[in-house]
Amino acid sequence: MSSYVGLVRTPGVARIMGAQLLARFPSGMLSLGFLLHIERTTGSYAAAGLVLAALSAGQAISGPLTSRLMGIFGMRPVILATVIACSLTILELALVEQSVPASMAVALLAGLTYPPIQPAVRTIYPKMVNSRQLTPLFSLDASAQELIWVGGPVLVTFVSTQIGTVQGILLSVVLMAGGGAWFLSSPELGRVRIPRSRRRFGQVLTRPTVLLATVVGFLLIGSCAAIETGIVAVFGDDGPEAGIVLAIWSIGSLAGGLLLGHIPIGPWALARRVLIVTVGLALAAFALNFWWLALTLVISGLGLAPALAVIFAITSSSVKFSDTAEAYGWVGTGQLIGAALGSAAAGFLIDQNGAIGAFWVAITLASAGLLAAVIGKRWHPDLRHRDASPLPDTDAVPVQPS
Question: What is the DSSP string of 112-136?
């Protein structure tokens, strides 16, 4: 724990971590918030799934593209423009009654303008701490990120069920705008300049490690989103049980990140952590009652934040600094798409098979993530004896013969 205390005391780390966490909190709220809102207004989980699919399609395009634009125009202009545009489109979805196709069009625009906070902060981190502190910083950040992916659904579920679905979505807009403003005011954004990448757009995905991190992150977060949807379907949207179970899951993940964050990252690190998640989710499907779900989701959570920390670390260590923003853009896009499509697929199966359908989706996605991690072990860097810093942007210097 002393290493984490030292990190928090490093100038600027606590501030920028808190700002990006607040700005990205809607990432964990919008999928479930839209699911609850559209289902309540249309009476169909399938209609909500279509809106979420449109949102994910926009995010698939915007994530790496806006990350790449930060190397051209700078981080502040791109983030400011996207925060404003995305907030306005989400407000429209929450406040305007319209047909499902119209909602899909607006959701697509919201995805296209989603702020690239995650790739920005992942690019800044290596410039804020020394190489020895970078892996623990990724672990601490991954643990904090669980407040987004698990705590976010808890918050939006509570507000949507106890107050209203419109208010749940409006809260996400307030957090996006407020967190975005705080993040934009951070002096680190002015100190770190992302070099213009010399690679073609998308070429960073030809690095097997980046592709591995993107695929596993997509499947892992997709399974989490499916479970969140299933928990709501199990307990309904009128009581606090769903929020309490998700909060317990969040605590388990946070504990796992802090407990395992200091362990050196070897070639099997990602597969082992995804295995913990998969086992916990598989056990959860055996009995859909409060105490069994709380217990099994704690088991699953112990591997969740550590798996995300490994994903961040291996991505950073495998690309040049000028490519880090785009690489994290692809990784983040994979996670956001996973969240949206996991919720959508779970919604369709809930309509057909009841709450257990969401658990089938989650187990399938987590198992696929485990398989991908095992197959990709050959491309998983061994960081037990090196740090996770990006590769330097250096070129060969021609030497004239004497």
Answer: HT---HHHHHHHHGGGTS-HHHHHH
The sign one gets for the Cα dihedral 191, 60, 382, 309 is positive
- Residue bearing tokens 């070129």: 395
CA 133 to chain CA mean position, Å: 22
φ, ψ of residue 126 to 5 degrees: the values are -60, -20
Region for residue 307 given its phi and psi (left: phi exceeds 0; alpha: psi -120 to 50; beta: otherwise): alpha
Q: Residue 87 belongs to what H/E stretch?
A: helix 75-95
pLDDT in tens, 176-197: 999 999 999 888 777 777 666 6
Amino acid at 156: V
Query: Structure pTM?
Result: 0.74
User: Could you give the C-alpha distances from 189 to 7, 37, 323, 330, in angstroms and in order?
Assistant: 19, 35, 17, 21
- What's the rounded Cα separation, in Å, for the pair 149 and 239? 21
Is domain 13-379 annotated with CATH 1.20.1250.20?
yes
**Nearest-angstrom CA–CA distance, 304 and 382:** 20
| Of 123-132, 321-330, 336-345, highest mean pLDDT | 336-345
Rg (CA), the chain: 20
CA distances from 69 to 24, 154, 207, 255 (A): 19, 33, 20, 36
Beta-carbon-side half-sphere exposure of residue 172 (alpha carbons within 13 Å) = 37
Tokens in use for 373? Answer: 């991690």
Averaged pLDDT score across all residues of the chain: 82
- Can you tell me the distance from the alpha carbon of 266 to that of 375, in angstroms, rounded to the nearest whole number? 15
